[in-house]
């Protein structure tokens, strides 16, 4: 009998997928389900981007591109770093990938040896550890507290570093917590990791979606930090499967070889469309959406407080609120499933994001409008009253 490779057994399925499937099923049965579980707002790609994609198809621009991406797109990304974040990033350092997911896969191969470990916060984006597993490496998750903005304490980083450690992976703004790192913190992390001769990755996929704190890029701290980004969140282009990684100059050749072999190229149509994303009208549209997300964030924070769900500190970015529900239940997973079945509100239990306190937490994504969020709050209040 044929068998799956051993590593598959160690890949945990995304719990949120099961919740989404059940939510869709309930919806198909005619129930009005409020979706706060998905990492994708109810926006579609800006119209001008859609049109640019349609034009690319009409003009037959559908073949492979250069492995590192269309030169015009790399140039546009480089200009964006200059105009918005005032940092110079040579286009040659930008490798366009199929989503941030492609960038994470590429980085795992580029920077982590078999048997090595990468330090990352618990909680964090669940796929990170699975990308590492693909290269025979492991994530070592370090406990992070809400009271400390879910940041890895600097002392912990030094204490945990040993001969097996390859680097540290952070995200800002982060999923699932919405926390935003300060430039000062990233700089301190970089100083410490540099002493250990390791690498730092900062996943900036939620860049631009910042409501409090600094919207900066880790590239302003050092050209030797690896930075990942994507068109999925700020530009609402999840299904276009397009992202990028910025690598230090000394890593360009290695990253290029991997891009050639892993992907041949990122999707051509998406790349042609994405060039349009950096023009001022599209950026203005993205800003309007950011402001809409800011309003939703306020609505949800206020609503959660009203129904007695404490938030240690308001998350500063992304579109998530990671809420401690341990005052109500000892099992956030069972609580989330019952909330969906009984009140048709879909949320993501913490189990997807970590181990230590995961059973206490639920992630709420403010991916629908304030009116729907208010409805969700009322339903959750009813649910808690009867729990
Ligand atoms: C922190 C983080 N990194 C990476 C990804 C992958 O994004 P994509 O492959 O759509 O660019 C996600 C998706 O939600 C995410 O939350």
UniProtKB/TrEMBL annotation:
It comes from the Bacteria. Its EC number is 2.6.1.-. GO terms for biological process: amino acid metabolic process. InterPro entries: Aminotransferase_I/II_large, AspAT/PAT-like, NHTrfase_class1_PyrdxlP-BS, PyrdxlP-dep_Trfase, PyrdxlP-dep_Trfase_major. Residues 32-380 form the Aminotransferase class I/classII large domain. Keywords: Aminotransferase, Pyridoxal phosphate, Transferase. Pfam families: Aminotran_1_2. The keyword Nucleotidyltransferase does not apply. Belongs to the class-I pyridoxal-phosphate-dependent aminotransferase family. This is Aminotransferase. It comes from Marinomonas piezotolerans. The lineage of its organism: Bacteria, Pseudomonadati, Pseudomonadota, Gammaproteobacteria, Oceanospirillales.
């Amino acid at each position: 009998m044929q068998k799956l490779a051993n590593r598959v057994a160690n890949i945990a399925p995304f719990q949120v997928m099961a919740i989404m499937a059940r939510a869709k099923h309930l919806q198909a049965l005619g129930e009005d389900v409020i979706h706060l579980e998905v990492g994708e707002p109810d926006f579609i790609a800006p119209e001008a981007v859609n049109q640019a994609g349609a034009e690319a198809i009409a003009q037959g621009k559908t073949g492979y591109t250069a492995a590192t991406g269309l030169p015009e797109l790399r140039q546009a990304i480089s200009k964006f770093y200059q105009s918005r974040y005032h940092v110079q990033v040579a286009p040659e350092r930008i490798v366009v990938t199929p989503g941030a997911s492609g960038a994470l896969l590429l980085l795992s191969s580029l920077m982590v040896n078999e048997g090595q470990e990468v330090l990352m916060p618990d909680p964090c984006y669940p796929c990170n550890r699975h990308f590492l597993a693909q290269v025979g490496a492991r994530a070592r998750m370090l406990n992070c507290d809400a009271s400390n903005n879910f940041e890895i304490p600097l002392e912990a980083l030094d204490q945990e570093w040993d001969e097996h450690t390859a680097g540290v992976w952070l995200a800002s703004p982060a999923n699932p917590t919405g926390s935003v790192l300060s430039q000062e913190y990233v700089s301190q992390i970089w100083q410490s990791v540099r002493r250990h001769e390791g690498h730092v990755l900062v996943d900036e996929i939620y860049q631009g979606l910042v409501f409090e704190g600094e919207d900066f890029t880790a590239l302003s701290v050092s050209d030797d930090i690896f930075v990942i980004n994507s068109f999925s969140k700020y530009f609402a282009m999840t299904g276009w499967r397009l992202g990028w990684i910025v690598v230090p100059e000394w890593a360009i050749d290695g990253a290029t070889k991997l891009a050639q072999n892993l992907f041949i190229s990122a999707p051509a149509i998406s790349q042609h469309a994405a060039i349009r994303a950096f023009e001022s009208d599209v950026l203005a549209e993205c800003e309007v959406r950011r402001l809409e997300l800011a309003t939703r964030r306020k609505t949800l924070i206020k609503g959660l407080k009203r129904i007695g769900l404490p938030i240690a500190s308001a998350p500063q970015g992304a579109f998530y609120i990671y809420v401690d529900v341990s005052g109500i239940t000892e099992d956030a997973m069972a609580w989330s499933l019952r909330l969906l079945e009984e009140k048709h509100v879909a949320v993501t239990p913490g189990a997807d994001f970590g181990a230590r306190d995961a059973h206490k937490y639920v992630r709420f994504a403010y991916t629908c409008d304030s009116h729907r969020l208010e409805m969700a709050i009322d339903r959750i209040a009813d649910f808690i009253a009867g729990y």
